[in-house]
Amino acid sequence: MPQQDFLQDLRNHLNDSATITPESQLRNYVTTTCLTQDDKTLPLRVSLETAQLYIGKEVGVTKWFPVTQDRVNRFADATGDFQFIHIDKERSARETCYDGTIAHGMLTMALVPTFATQGSLKILGSRQSIIYGLDRVRFLNPIRIGKRIRGRFTLLSAQERSTDEVLMRHAVSIEIEGEEKPALIADWIVMYALSSEETTLSVSEARSTANMSPSTFKAAG
Q: Long-range contacts of range 175-182, CB-CB < 8 Å, 24 or more positions apart?
């Protein structure tokens, strides 16, 4: 598909998504926030110009999120992936090295947007965002049922594609509590559609925030 056609499809999808009622948007946002937002920090929201100061910096860490057997079973129901290592604890303990069931890798990847709601940097003045894609996805460590995970985000780039479109790329690591190796690493890419009016932070305010220690963004736990 030619690039211009792909971008037009993206614009059309943005327009269609904008028909969601404010009540539904609020309900969805509150539900996701309760799952992922660390009580000590709020998501960073800055202007496009200010976002350049954060490139290469850690911008957010979510709170710990429990991976339960019920959630894994419901994911198996939704996708048709009933492999025993995910749903049969006794057989998995008997026939594998995992000593029980583990989460689907695709479930881990599907949680990236949930974590990004609170962990990624946001552009002020945006009216809509849409998932553009994932790059360099690697599944490095299985998540055993009962473990807790969280998302850690570092801004890689903020590219202005047009006067009203910004392409944001973050490096994301899905960490497992108590384990050194993450479950998943990837580049998370989102397209932001900007509104005509944009609220901005001063460059001095942003520079001060951008130079804060990464520990400021660490989740409790």
A: 175/149, 175/150, 175/151, 176/141, 176/143, 176/147, 176/148, 176/149, 177/64, 177/147, 177/148, 177/149, 177/150, 177/221, 178/147, 179/141, 179/147, 181/140, 181/141, 182/140, 182/141
User: Domain residue spans in the chain?
Assistant: 3-67+104-217, 68-102
> What are 20-33's pLDDT values in tens digits?
665 665 566 556 66
pTM above 0.70, yes or no: yes
Per-residue pLDDT reduced to its tens digit, 118-151: 899 998 888 888 899 999 999 999 999 999 999 9
Q: Which fold has domain 3-67+104-217?
A: Thiol Ester Dehydrase; Chain A (3.10.129)
Contact 152, 172 (CB under 8 A): yes
